[in-house]
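Thread: Modeling a multi-component assembly for a lab meeting

Hi all, long-time lurker, first post. My supervisor asked me to bring a structural picture of a complex we are working on to next week's group meeting, and I have zero experience with this. I have the sequence lines for every component (397 residues in total). Could someone generate the structure of the whole assembly? Inputs are pasted exactly as I received them:
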Amino acid sequence: MSFVAEFNALPRESLLERCQQTTVAAAQESLRRSTLSLTDFAHVISPAAGELVEALCRRSQALTRQRFGKTIRLFAPLYLSNECINNCKYCGFSRDNPILRVTLSVEEVVREARALWQEGFRSLLLVAGEHPKFVSRGYLQECVRALHEQFPSISLEVGPMETADYRPLFQAGAEGLVVYQETYDRDVYADLHTAGPKRNFGWRLETPERAYAAAFRRLGIGALYGLSDWRLEAICVAAHAEYLLRNCWKAQLTISLPRLRPCAGEFHPLTEMTDRDLVQLVCALRLTFPDAGLVLSTRESATLRNGLIPLGITLMSAGSHTEPGGYTGAGQQRIHHTERGRIVPLTAGASEWAPNGARATGQFEIADERPPAEVADIIRRLGYEPVWKDWDAALTA
Ligand code: SF4
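Re: Modeling a multi-component assembly
Sure thing. I ran the full set together rather than chain by chain. Output:
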């Protein structure tokens, strides 16, 4: 049975109600258990459990150190293209946003990767909007092939595919697949995804399973917080994680916790998730999924990221750019607009979007702008080890 069937049968509303009405005593009881069920998870993220955040932090910290040691794995997103055929109201790359676009050539992708290598990164997340014309399967394969000799860990965050299309990407050297459901609230999902294949909620939800069937062994999931009630999203993420751990058990699971950031299109969050809520969720996820990687990106401020390092996070990006060519300026000379899949060259000085030396538009604004070396330094000063490389293809030979 696919997760879609389990998701359809999941008593989401009653779990959310339990969560909202939980008492501190019930939350405490759930917190004490060595193995947390989905109901326990709902208790631990409840408003009542807000009073228990310090106890939660202590348990989460101890469990994370026991399972992962005092390490934080570092990775960098490398944006290949900001072309997209979808309209997602909350995303700067949406088809109808008149942004500056570009798709890097394979040589330019290698140039960007070299710059990241110089910074110390050995783990890359290749990111692209969904546009079969500009970001074809063949193009993605070429990018992975060109990088995998040098980079021991390459993950993808690109438009969902069929299993048969994932296989050549795995064979080319990609080992991880990241796909956020964005929101697990079907009504909100339908409202926010106004055009393009991404409108198919179930197809997206089954993506990690298709990637697993193609042999991907790192699977990343998450919700984008700020679109629907964060507790409802978290319950669904937990149910999804539980399903993947049961059914895709050979893969390592990571869970990301992105909160909405400002972007082109000026979408504003529909719901609030405070810093304290985020801390509570990180700890609740750790207690429920002791071996899952928990990912924190540069969407969050330096202060909050520093504070979360000892509490349960195990992977962080650093020094990120969310525009193609962001690390070296690659592709700058080919920046254009795209209308109905057609490239529209910029006429000099004719666009307020293209002042001299402009770069492609980023997906969203980042909050932590510290260079990677500074992030690594603070990780060390907090008593943790920054890990740039934790896997090598030779280990699986
Ligand atoms: S969220 Fe993804 S699919 Fe949606 S517009 Fe942005 S890049 Fe495209």
